[in-house]
Amino acid sequence: MLTARRAAKRIAANWELYALISFPVAYFFIFRYIPMYGVTIAFKDFTPALGIWGSPWVGFEHFRTFFESYNFEQILRNTVILSGLLLLIAFPIPILAALMLNQVAQQKLKRFIQTSIYAPYFISTVVLIGMVYVFLSPNSGIVNHLIVALGGEPVLFMAKAEWFRPIYVFTEVWQNTGFASIIYLAALAGIDPHLHEAAVVDGASKWQRVRHIDLPGIAPTVLIMFILAIGSLMNIGFEKAFLMQTDVNVDASEIIPTYVYKIGIQRAQYSFSAAIGLFNAVINLILLVMVNQAVKKMNGNSLF
Prior knowledge:
Blueprint: H1 2-13, H2 15-33, H3 51-54, H4 61-68, H5 72-90, H6 92-102, H7 107-118, H8 125-135, H9 142-149, H10 164-189, H11 193-201, H12 206-231, H13 238-244, H14 250-253, H15 256-266, H16 270-299
Helix pairs in contact: 4-16, 5-10, 6-10, 7-10, 10-12, 12-16, 15-16
């Protein structure tokens, strides 16, 4: 009773803060937690006419079907390889961009470079892929014109499976580097400038200042962003992969999100697609918990 009274007094004394936080709490409860009820169709033979509760239970039948399907290994391999490439290439580049921008002394030049690399983020994925098709066209694309001018033969970039991953990673880096670097620039801005002044007095070079001041200063931010990246490792952007996918590069471009779309929307196999999506979410959760615990043991920084 005393605890309830104390809680009521605390809420009454800070009702403005509780009223402010009630909106995001309601948002997550309504749009994030209540829809989780629909995950149960992954364990049922869902029929819209019967509804979720009326549809019969089938247990793990849909998961077993997916694991035993002829293209399971191919889809999983494509997803893991593409996710790994994005983690190895697209993740560290914003860090390098932020470190280099932080060393630019002229503010006008710094703002110009930052705006230039940030601008592609505002281009929609549909427009971006349209630009890619235009630039890489075998007949009128500027890239193939340069290849021909240098004595080579036109390359069918969008019709070759081996070119799907390089193009995907390149466009991801080009579009999102500027936006991702803002977080690291903010972390660099929080480093005490007196540390740099003392290092300059001691004769430290720019590389030594980056190595011994900047990198340790943004290390906690980098680790948190790394944990978040691992937690969404299997959630590759569906739009870009789907728009770049053709019949001739499907061996490399068929990933879990595009497969779920085809199975769930185009073929109306709702339970089967829900099972695949749930499998993908569980893998992400396991990776997130494992990496979070590993980072927490190493230096104490973690999400939870």
